[in-house]
Write a structure and sequence with these properties.
about 550 residues, alpha/beta, 7-stranded parallel sheet, 5-stranded parallel sheet, 23 strands
Length: about 550
Amino acid sequence: MTYAITQTCCSDATCVAVCPVNCIHPTPEEQAFGSTEMLYVDPETCIDCGACADACPVDAIFPVDSLFGAQKEYAGINAAYYADRKPEPVAGPNFHAWGEPSFPRSLPSDFAPIRVAVVGTGPAGMYAAEDLLLHTNAEVTLIDRLPVAGGLVRYGVAPDHPATKGVGEAFARFHSHPRVRMHLGVEVGKDLTVEELSAHHDAVIYAVGASDSRRLGIPGEDLPASIPATSFVSWYNAHPEVPPEAFDLSAERVIVAGNGNVALDVARILVTDPATLTGTDIAGHALAALRESKVREVVLLGRRGPDDTACTASELLALGHLPGVELVVDDGDPRTAAVIDAAATGEKAFLLRELPREAVDWSQPPPPGRRIVFRFHSSPVEVLGGDGVEAVRVTAADGDQEIPAGLFLRAIGYRGLPVPGLPFDEMTGTVPHEGGRVAGMPGSYVVGWIKRGPSGGIGANRTCAAETVGTLLADAVAGALPSPSYPARAFGRLARNRGRQVVDARGLAAIDRAEQARGREQGRPRVKFETVPALIAASKGSRWRPVR
């Protein structure tokens, strides 16, 4: 028996580190690492020890003979990766050769503890904090502008992907670490300045992500019901900055610009039977709206052809297993069928080969049932409507075409926002840096999407954080970090004075307990608090009630 890695792989390589026979690839040392959509177990080398499954933070690894349903495909997917790949040489029949121990991200044993602030508690920030806490004696201050931790793990992962959210539990063990101080509900650049934060720490790591959305720059883009898909994701995940009434699902057809994983997430949530979402942590207001939803068809617009589909193969495969949902390829453009028919096994376009094709008559309402339509070689050029979206004009092989719709979501990528006091590159939406070190600002560092742009999933942040932490520690050893101007406890007083309502680790634990208790009442894993006042009240052990 062998193991296989499945859909929820986060590629953070935790499994690689514990495998005794080097059967998981690509490894962080290999050129292909970061360019493949997931990691793969070699069935010929695997010795069935289960170490990888025990270590996986997102429950993505299972014995092949235990795979069922849609997961069965992953036995072949793992094996196919090794079909034309030379096996790595090993030192013996059972265990691969380990290199000489190396500790590139550490400090000398006699080095005085350094104080490091990490701004942002999403995956990037927490991988950096984890690295510092496990490999050094650093004291870490965790800061987030929201009164709850988690970042994109809490507010960006689809509710029907609970295994992916499991990485948050791995990070949570550091929230109450004895060398961690937590200050949630404090916004750098608003409640306190970059200079003040630096004056209280030896170093500051900014892991603020990319919270804005890219724009199309087309007429009508700002009409009501023309909204970033990222806002829709925040809405169904109970983000406190997106109001419950933000989305009207009374239209039968929704158009989504883009076909990446975010586009697939929103399409899937829109057409999924709400009954299957009742066992998730989806926002209560979103679940209620989906139960009353009139949406029957979601159109995914791809600017390029099927061979350039932006989503991962695993997410595309999963879409094909949605009960009661039909997947259709609009073949009004002859290039679409030609590319799909010519695709080789293993290419994403090949996965579309078994789907029905239809020259969709867009002048007609959607047919009965629920479906997702893939439309390639098609870009939106104008959003049409008066008080709301009525149609979207898109490019077509024989001229522009109007597709009636009542909601238009753009899923064309995230974009970073400037942090007051830090340099910012408007072209890339990132902070200029060298190996994570902010240009011209000793003691300031970046990690995650604000460092490299909005690319890569959760696991990509682990290697990104390793680089930044390595740079920071090298600067510490070289004596290049500016010394704090204030004692350690002074920052806590500053944060409490400046923050609206600061939540510490004890308050975060109270929020977690309260949300899980609410979930038990409804047979759900948790029911999130949907507003900042509700989160603050829960952190204090209070029962918050909205004013009617």
